[in-house]
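2024-03-11 09:14:02 DEBUG pipeline.ingest accepted 1 chain
2024-03-11 09:14:02 DEBUG pipeline.ingest length=102
2024-03-11 09:14:03 DEBUG pipeline.predict start
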Amino acid sequence: MDKLKYLIALVGGLLATALKLYAPIFIAVMVMLIFDFITGIIAAKMTGENWNSATARKGLMKKGTMLAQLLFGIALDYIIPMAATQVGFTFNVSHLLFSNII
């Protein structure tokens, strides 16, 4: 199962870099994070575990960290080419990862 998650993350990352479709990716991640939070609450109710603020805080911190990483990656995708042009380095293509393929 872990290999499948890594494969999905790799393919998603490559597509995001190649296509620069950040809005749909951000929306999909937000929907998945909300779904994860809701299913966590349902699982806690079904198993009889107490739902406490410490557990919720830990889960929300994880989700916040994931969003921060996503936003940081999106920002870098714009900042690196902009900074490179400021020092005189120009890119012939807009995608760093696929620059030797396209």
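2024-03-11 09:14:41 DEBUG pipeline.report The radius of gyration is 18 Å.
2024-03-11 09:14:41 DEBUG pipeline.predict end
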